[in-house]
Design brief:
It is built from five helices and six strands, in the order H-H-E-E-E-H-H-E-E-E-H. By secondary structure, it is an alpha/beta fold. Strand 1 and strand 2 (about 50) form a beta hairpin.
């Protein structure tokens, strides 16, 4: 178990170093914004069920986005993984499959970003309620 924790810390350190080289600042600010967005939109459905949005949109300054795209970076996957760990630690349930979409926003000030969340429209409330009931019977 300690080896996995050490590996996770090492990977996070490398991710932070990579982001700092690209953007010129630590990714902690962007990761914190994603986590805040998740926490702020959590809906308590029952004592054991807290649901959070499953689709997150991150808009980056055009220069930063172009640099990440040019290098073939997997920033979206890294942010998705980080957000998934956050939700797991908090005991959140996703409203559907989790996605973090990175987009170019030409009108943002240099080095800035914008984060928004939503529930993917193809997930109906009826399907969600059925899944929640099924999950309650399994516990």
């Amino acid at each position: 178990m300690r080896a996995l924790s050490a590996l996770e810390l090492t990977l996070e350190h490398h991710w932070e170093a990579f982001w700092a080289r690209i953007v010129g600042k630590e990714p902690v600010e962007l990761v914190a914004a994603l986590r805040r967005e998740c926490d702020d939109h959590a809906v308590v459905c029952s004592k054991r069920l807290v649901v959070v949005p499953n689709a997150y949109d991150v808009e980056l300054d055009a220069t930063v986005h172009d640099e990440l795209t040019r290098r073939g970076s997997r920033v979206g996957q890294a942010l998705t993984d980080n957000l998934a760990r956050h939700a797991e630690h908090r005991g959140y349930e996703w409203a559907g499959p989790l996605t973090v979409h990175i987009a170019r926003a030409p009108k943002l000030p240099n080095g800035r970003y914008r984060v928004a969340s939503r529930v993917m429209p193809h997930v109906s409330a009826r399907e969600f309620e059925h899944a929640a009931r099924q999950d309650g019977h399994r516990r």
